[in-house]
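Dear colleagues,

I hope this message finds you well. In preparation for our joint manuscript, I am sending the Glycosyl transferase group 1 (Pelodictyon phaeoclathratiforme) sequence together with its predicted structure, so that both groups work from identical material. I would be grateful if you could confirm receipt.
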Amino acid sequence: MRILLLTQWFDPEPTYKGLYFAKELQKQGFEVEVLTGFPNYPGGKIYPGYKIQLYKKEVIEGVLVTRVPLYPSHDQREIGRVLNYVSFAVSALVYGVLRAKRPDVVYAYHPPLTVGIAVSLIRLFRRVPVVYDIQDMWPDTLRATGMVSNSRALDIVGRICKLVYRSVDRIVVLSPGFRKLLVERGVPERKVDVIYNWCDEASMGNPAGEIPKDFFGSGSFAIVFAGNMGKAQALDAVLVAAEIVQKKAPEICFVFIGGGVEVDNLKSLAHEKNLHNVRFLQPVPMAEIGGVLAKADALLIHLRKDPLFTITIPSKTQAYMAVGKPLLMAVEGDVADLVKAAGCGVIAEPENPESIADAALKLFSLSSAERNAMTERSKEYYKSKLSLNVGVEKFAAIFRQSAK
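The corresponding structure tokens are as follows:
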């Protein structure tokens, strides 16, 4: 069975459903062709060894990859990013309709306004079933993150999304809340499946890399947040919690690893509050982050209070659970339910410093045996419910059903 895997981002670019996914599909007996762009994310510059051309075929670790031209850009200018998305959609549509060997199923990976439209037209012209993977609920995500605030534009986005969802054969979402919302918006329940994302298991399961020199030393209880620090993460509330914790248990420290638009503001706030129990570290390569997380005593996830985030499962959740450290989960909804089901952490109310501080103190007060038990439950839950192998088996079943 032939699968055309259509995604704008693919290795060597960072992506969740990339080479790792394609190789596992081939192990399941599928023939896979990847249709993607020339690598330029996240810097917006074409990677060394590549140049824009009409199309390029290459084989990466046994997987056939076809690259089509796009406008490389990932800066803050809206026109550049629009051209980046639209140019790939047009190129993918032309290749998918005119040149690609006819697949049994097309699998398309986000976003709806570009990839979604292109794959809907490929389905129309090639008459092949489409499985569409939704990673962000548009227009909700655009509104919640502030990327788009114009109500008319958001309404247009919503209408286009409905057309895409109506045209494809099956939809895969990352959480039960996403599925519920789509059904409420008129998508047939039988059409929507929940498949949880997985993590880079090689990096998380075999941690490498050295601990940064400015990491807190022995005798401290390190709660680590790793990833983007933007407005959606609302980490100023965590710094207020750190101020509370500093007075009650100075052994507890908070380590923030990564970059983002709010880093400088957060550093300033920590300085103003004279927080001795807070560190900000530079981003760590994915191949090494597992080693840093493995040295933490607990791992933190925090998003601001928003209806969208109650149905979102942040991708770092799976990475944290694969590493196996106790979680301080300060997000409501589906992801909190996941942590409760796994029994691998303590839940706090987002943007509530007192609740976050109480959760940190509770984790600190647990015995080593209790925290070790959380570690084992976390790893086991990931392996049985969230792992790559589990996810690919579910995708394989959907692909076979769709091809029939």
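For the figure legend, we might mention the following. The chain has a mean pLDDT of 91. The radius of gyration is 22 Å.

With kind regards,
E.M.
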